[in-house]
Amino acid sequence: MKIQQMAFMLLAVTLFFAIAGLFVITISFSGIKQSADLIKEQNALLLVSKIADSPEFACENAFNQPMTNCIDTDKAMALKKNIQDYRNFWGISGLEMIWVYPDNNTGTECTTENYPECGEITLIPVANGTGIGNFVSLCRKAIDNNSIPYNQCDLGKIIVIYNG
Predict the structure, then answer these.
(1) 89-116 as b/e, with b when 16 or more CB fall inside 10 Å?
(2) Which domain holds residue 68?
(3) Count of domains forming the chain
(4) Is residue 38 part of a domain?
C-alpha cells in the first residue's frame, strides 16, 4: 500500500512540475511576437534613412555638394521605369515619395508625361502593410527663364511599407 501511495505521490509531483514548467515557458515566450514586430519596425525605420542616402536616390553627386536625406527625383523617375529589377532588393513591400511642401499637386501620381507637375512617386505599390516615413528633400534640376539650370528642392516624405 505504501509503494502505491509513493507511486501516486511521485506521479502527482511530476505532473505538478510539468504544468508549472509549461506555465513558465508560456510566460517567457509570450512577448516574442511583439518583439519580432518591434524589430521589423525598427529595421524599416533605419531602412528609410538608408534608402534616402543610397546611390539609387541620393542627390550628392548630382548637385555637387554633400547632402544627406536628399532624394534626386529625376533618378527616382528613371528608377520607376525599371523598378522590377529592384522589387526585392530592399526587402520591403512598398516604397513611395510624397511632396509635402509646396503641396500644389497632392495626390497626383508622377508619370513621364506630368513630371515634375505631380505630387507623389509610387515606386513599389502595395495594398496593405505598415508604413514608416521620414522627411527628406526632394530635389531636381530645373531651368529658369534665362535657361540657367538651378537646383529645385522641396520638402517631401519617403514612406517605406512593410508587412508586420
Answers:
(1) ebebbbbbbbbeeeeeeeeeebeeeebb
(2) 56-162
(3) 2
(4) no
Q: How many residues does the chain have?
A: 164
For residue 60, being part of any structural domain is answered with: yes
- The CA angle 36-42-47, to the nearest 5 degrees, is 125
Q: What cell numbers appear for 65 in the block?
A: 555638394
Helix (H, G, I), strand (E, B) or coil at 92: coil
94: left (phi over 0), alpha (psi -120 to 50) or beta: beta
Percent composition of the chain: helix, strand, coil (DSSP 3-state, to 5): 35, 30, 35
Q: pTM for the whole thing?
A: 0.70
| Residue-wise pLDDT tens digits, 117-159 | 888 888 888 767 778 888 988 988 888 888 888 888 899 999 8
